[in-house]
Design brief:
InterPro entries: 6-blade_b-propeller_TolB-like. The protein is of the alpha+beta class and 1023 residues long. It has 15 helices and 54 strands. 52% of the residues are buried.
Length: 1023
């Protein structure tokens, strides 16, 4: 560095090396900043005073210093202190620190600890001001103090100089014949970085000043509102086909949108990546059936590509030479582009990477589907059934650009004015392509190792670190070219410590750490799919049902309707239409350009001008498919008038109670609810005692209620077959909430020591078009907690002692598994299970496979989000519920809010408050008492029901039902609605799991269930 430059100033750098052994403190020491070296001189009391430090000061008492070190305030760098060589001739590394624009202090053992943490690629920032912010977030933490204590205990042994060996066990030599080496962190010290990183990231990923620098937020999409302005069809080809994205995302930080689609099938797709990673994009074209992939050679692929897209692929082909075939993929899976993170590179502004894919769709035969497989570094829980090699370029590019380059930049003092350099680097395909291929060749076996296909990617990233350092960074051609691009000398200086950051990041890849930290890249699936499919139009008719023998017409107050098209594998569409005259028998409208595939249910809700629900209904579950000669889906919904408004005067009234009498379950009409509270639960006694209540759920089409409880005296064995002292067991049950509850009765033949959970689809039937599940709690975090299938019935003709009325609890077939045992989960109609538990600030997302699998082959749930206070992060997530429009709501006790998400793990701006549109604040009725959030449910319009208990729940007035509007305002509180859990159906009827105990034959201990209905308006409009 040249001190004559405006940003460069000379500094006296002071170090406190007292944490080293007394022998090591004698030195001599050399400080390295970039590739320059400066001697460190031992302090005397006089020199302390001369340099502005008081010898009496306990906080600022450096032992060594060096004068007039040129320091560029526009650059962040890693400075190192070296001691005498060891027995191998390798300089010993004694200390390190991150030097920034604010660095005018004494460096201590704490700064060495901070430097190790700062090299974590998910924490690194390359801009001075922001790096100070990150470093300041490391202060005053127990985790950092533990690292400092360990440094002081280990003294000179906090790292070990280690010579790099090749595959034959021989030293890897530089061009001068000297061995390359690394400084391996002591395992105790390295392991402490995991907990420290969690605490730091919790702060920095919630710091608004680091938005766009260290983190970004892509707004999620849970459903697509359709109105009269956007009902026009997309461009239709001469063959009669038109196309649209099934779900453009974002999903796990990446989204896709259609920029252009012409009559000649020329298509522009924009891919946006929001995480700090590089990604590869592969495409598969399918024939008109949407199933058969189209095979093509390189020439056929190039004939489809356009503009910059074509140029990029040609450059990759030229750069890879003999490896071209690996690049192009299989006969049908074809490489078409790369995508980088946009906007900034760790704080340094860079131009937006090319992310527009321009190509022409094959025209030999009309295509039925285009799949984009977008891959990068991540866990093996891919949401794609495409070739996993779709990710190899993304993995290699991320390892190079987002993991290695930041550390090299810190050591070689590459500053913020180097944005042009980074732009050059990102687009220098002649350098990137062979480097990425080199990375792939040395880590291919790691990526494809079956042990790395779960959520735990620690071993994969650790091995990746070792091989990149030993094989890639020691290659002379790579070092020379990288040095030229970075305009830096002696890039070899970075080799000894590059592995630190990668290994610190690797520790975040364990399940235990992913459950506590903001994982982003390593928590995302390795491949994310997006599909462009043939679309069709849908014609929807709402038929008014006759009321009391009158002519069929809608409610007199009906002003508008909202129809929700709930797709099984596609984003929900919602359509709002006005009702100019309610005195009609039917209303019709069209949905244009709806993607084909899967199943669909249409939900209709009719509202008054005040927003009161005055009618509703749903269609059958329909095949959302094109059929020969029929390019339009026709559906009808019968709409029944309703008188259940919700306003601040609404009061829920007890309607009926489940009882057992004369060997049958009955609904007893009564306005008097049960009086029992939590005080009536037992505490581990013998006999028939209700011990606990774990939740209730419902299915609308079959009219099912499923609920879970714990009791003694269940007269069933424990599931594990151990008779022991397991007197208190969990069981679950089904009944129907129609006139005859016995029609749906099902019981568990055995009990559990932990609470199982139920996940029922809102509209699933028993014809196999939907699958019902329970969570088996007998697993563990290693083998997983498995999702198992339930086959419910609703048939009064089946005898109560029929074997079909027992749940099949036999293990062996799994529909997915969770690393973390959920305490709340919900069924997303796209075929996902969303789960949370308050011990971990994450959301688990499990994509349900098309068929059950053996336990050891079942897919794992993805672990997303992480701890924090801003949108997209969680603290103590207690409950999850999913609205009919597919918006996911998570109630966070830690943040005292309900936050909205899409199934891709992104926050949704679902609420009206402009200051925080992603969440609503929970009402606290008594801040002096602990709150237990018991249950959350959502009705068709989007009103959110929350049941809570204050204190021990022994008194009725400690129970609160709070209802929040779809816009996020608090609508009403009903105090004294005593229950342990609730579920609301589409039409606002409540079903509660009660503390009251009933004892049906053969003496089983069960809770009662109640139905509650909202008050109806009087003629004057009151309730």
């Amino acid at each position: 560095m040249d001190p004559s430059q405006p940003n460069v100033r000379n500094l006296d750098i002071h170090y406190d090396l007292r944490f080293l052994s007394e022998e090591a403190q004698e030195g001599p020491f050399i400080l390295k900043a970039g590739s320059a070296s400066y001697p460190l001189v031992k302090h005397s009391n006089d020199s302390l005073r001369a340099n502005g430090f008081s010898s009496e000061s306990k906080e600022l008492h450096p032992t060594h210093y060096c004068s007039s070190v040129p320091h560029d305030s526009s650059k962040v760098q890693l400075i190192r202190v070296y001691g005498p060589p060891d027995h191998q001739g390798i300089p010993t590394l004694k200390a390190a620190a991150i030097s920034t624009s604010a660095s005018g202090k004494v460096f201590t053992a704490a700064d060495t600890a901070k430097a190790i943490l700062f090299l974590n690629p998910s924490i690194t920032v390359l801009t001075p001001d922001h790096s100070d912010t990150v470093l300041n977030h490391m202060d005053d933490s127990d985790e950092l103090r533990q690292m400092v204590f360990m440094l002081e205990q280990l003294k000179d042994g906090w790292n070990t100089p280690t010579i790099i060996m090749d595959e034959k066990g021989q030293p890897v030599l530089d061009k001068s014949g000297n061995p390359y080496y690394t400084y391996d962190l002591h395992p105790y010290l390295l392991n402490l970085t995991a907990g420290a990183s969690v605490g730091i990231k919790k702060k920095i990923y919630s710091d608004s000043t680091l938005r766009g620098v260290r983190w970004n937020v892509q707004q999620g999409v849970s459903h697509i509102p359709v109105n009269q302005r956007n009902l026009t069809a997309s461009t239709i080809s001469t063959g009669g086909y038109h196309y649209n994205l099934k779900d453009g995302g974002p999903q796990y930080g990446v989204s896709v949108s259609v920029d252009k689609l012409t009559d000649s099938f020329e298509l522009d797709l924009k891919v946006t990546n929001n995480f700090i990673r590089h990604m590869s994009v592969y495409a598969t074209f399918y024939k008109g059936d949407g199933v058969t992939p189209i095979e093509m050679n390189a020439d056929a692929l190039l004939a489809l590509l356009r503009g910059e897209n074509l140029l990029e692929v040609k450059q990759w082909m030229d750069a890879l030479g003999e490896a071209e075939q690996l690049l192009l993929g299989t006969k049908s899976l074809k490489f078409i582009s790369t995508v980088s993170a946009e906007g900034t590179f760790l704080g340094i502004p860079v131009t937006e990477a090319s992310s527009v894919l321009s190509f022409k769709l094959p025209t030999t035969d009309p295509i039925g589907k285009l799949r984009l497989s977008i891959g990068s570094l991540g866990n093996g829980n891919s949401h794609s059934d495409a070739d996993p090699n779709a990710a190899w370029i993304g993995i290699g590019a991320t390892a190079l650009m987002d993991l290695v380059i930041p550390t090299v930049s810190l050591i070689m003092t590459v500053g913020t004015e180097s944005s042009k350099m980074f732009d050059t680097l990102f687009k220098k395909i002649k350098f990137i392509a062979p480097t990425v291929y080199s990375i792939y060749t040395v880590v291919k076996d790691i990526i494809n190792d079956s042990s790395n296909t779960g959520n735990d990617v620690k071993n994969m990233i650790t091995s990746l670190a070792d091989r990149i350092v030993s094989t890639l960074l020691t290659g002379s051609e790579f070092i020379e070219e990288l040095a030229a691009i970075l305009s830096a000398e002696e890039v070899e200086e970075a080799i000894p410590v590059v592995g630190w950051g990668l290994k610190v990041l690797a520790l975040e890849g364990t399940v235990a750490q992913l459950a506590q930290t903001v994982g982003e890249v390593i928590a995302a699936p390795r491949v994310v799919d997006f599909e462009l499919t043939v679309t069709m139009d849908a014609s929807i008719t709402l038929n008014a049902l006759a009321d009391g023998g009158q002519q069929p017409e809608f409610a007199a107050t009906a002003a508008y309707y909202i129809v929700t098209a709930q797709y099984s594998d596609n984003t929900t569409r919602t359509y709002r239409g006005d009702i100019p005259d309610p005195k009609v028998a039917s209303l019709s409208f069209e949905l244009k350009n709806v993607p084909v595939g899967g199943k669909v249910t249409f939900l209709a809700a009719v509202y008054s001008k005040e927003g009161w629900l005055v009618g509703g209904g749903k269609s059958d579950l329909l095949d959302n498919l094109l059929t020969p000669g029929k390019e339009r889906l026709v559906a009808s919904v019968n709409v029944k008038q309703m008188l259940y408004p919700l306003n601040e005067q609404t009061n829920y009234r007890h309607s009926q109670l489940l009882i057992h009498q004369d060997g049958q379950y009955l609904w007893q009409q009564t306005s008097q609810p049960p009086s029992e509270t939590a005080a009536d639960l037992g505490t581990g006694g013998t006999g028939h005692v209700l011990e606990g209540l774990a939740g209730i759920t419902l299915n609308s089409n079959m009219g099912l209620l499923g609920y879970i409880w714990q009791a003694s005296g269940l007269n069933i064995p424990p599931i594990d077959g151990d008779d022991g002292d397991n007197l208190q067991l969990y069981a679950f049950k089904n009944i129907t909430y129609g006139p005859d509850p016995n029609a749906g009765v099902m019981n568990t033949p055995a009990g559990y020591n932990k609470a199982p959970l139920l996940a029922y689809p809102q509209f699933g039937t028993e014809d196999g078009s939907a699958v019902y599940f329970y969570l088996d709690p007998t697993g563990d975090s290693v083998s997983g907690f498995h999702l198992r299938r339930i086959k419910p019935i609703n048939d009064p003709s089946v005898p109560q002692n029929n074997p079909h009325r027992e749940f099949d609890l036999s293990a062996g077939e799994s529909w997915g598994r969770f690393n973390l045992l959920p305490t709340s989960m919900a069924y997303h109609s796209n075929g996902y299970i969303i789960a949370v538990d308050p011990a971990h600030p994450v959301m688990q997302i499990l994509r349900i496979p098309s068929t059950g699998k053996p336990d050891d082959q079942a897919p794992w749930a993805l672990i997303t989000l992480g701890p924090g206070t801003r949108e997209g992060l969680l603290l103590q997530p207690e409950l999850v519920a999913i609205a009919p429009n597919q918006t996911i709501y998570i109630l966070e006790k830690g943040n005292q809010r309900i936050q909205a998400f899409s199934r891709g793990g992104h926050p949704v701006a679902a609420f009206a408050n402009p200051d925080h549109p992603y969440w609503i604040e929970l009402v606290n009725h008594d801040a002096s008492q602990d709150i237990k959030y018991l249950s959350m449910s959502v009705e068709i319009q989007g009103h959110i029901y929350v049941l809570s208990q204050y204190g021990n729940g022994y008194e009725a007035d400690q129970y609160y039902l709070d209802i929040y509007t779809p816009a996020g305002s608090h609508l009403l509180t009903q105090r004294g609605l005593v229950a342990a859990s609730l579920a609301v159906d589409l039409w606002r009827n409540l079903y509660t799991l009660n503390f009251q105990q009933i004892s049906p034959p053969p003496g089983r201990t069960e809770p009662s269930v109640s139905e509650w209905t909202p008050s109806t308006p009087r003629k004057d409009g009151s309730v």
